[in-house]
Amino acid sequence: MKIRNSLKSLAGRHRDNQIVRRKGRIYIINKVQKRYKARQG
């Protein structure tokens, strides 16, 4: 999982990316391509 300051640019890299908010953190998850996981740090 990548930890990035800004997730907006990463979210546009694949059409199945979803921005999800969990426990005060913002994540990108992708059920199709698992490699597109990121967390805002």
UniProtKB/TrEMBL annotation:
<keyword id="KW-0689">Ribosomal protein</keyword>
<dbReference type="GO" id="GO:0006412">
    <property type="term" value="P:translation"/>
</dbReference>
<dbReference type="GO" id="GO:1990904">
    <property type="term" value="C:ribonucleoprotein complex"/>
</dbReference>
<keyword id="KW-0687">Ribonucleoprotein</keyword>
<dbReference type="InterPro" id="IPR000473">
    <property type="entry name" value="Ribosomal_bL36"/>
</dbReference>
<comment type="similarity">
    <text>Belongs to the bacterial ribosomal protein bL36 family.</text>
</comment>
<protein>
    <recommendedName>
        <fullName>Large ribosomal subunit protein bL36</fullName>
    </recommendedName>
</protein>
<dbReference type="InterPro" id="IPR047621">
    <property type="entry name" value="Ribosomal_L36_bact"/>
</dbReference>
<dbReference type="GO" id="GO:0003735">
    <property type="term" value="F:structural constituent of ribosome"/>
</dbReference>
<dbReference type="Pfam" id="PF00444">
    <property type="entry name" value="Ribosomal_L36"/>
</dbReference>
<dbReference type="GO" id="GO:0005840">
    <property type="term" value="C:ribosome"/>
</dbReference>
<dbReference type="InterPro" id="IPR035977">
    <property type="entry name" value="Ribosomal_bL36_sp"/>
</dbReference>
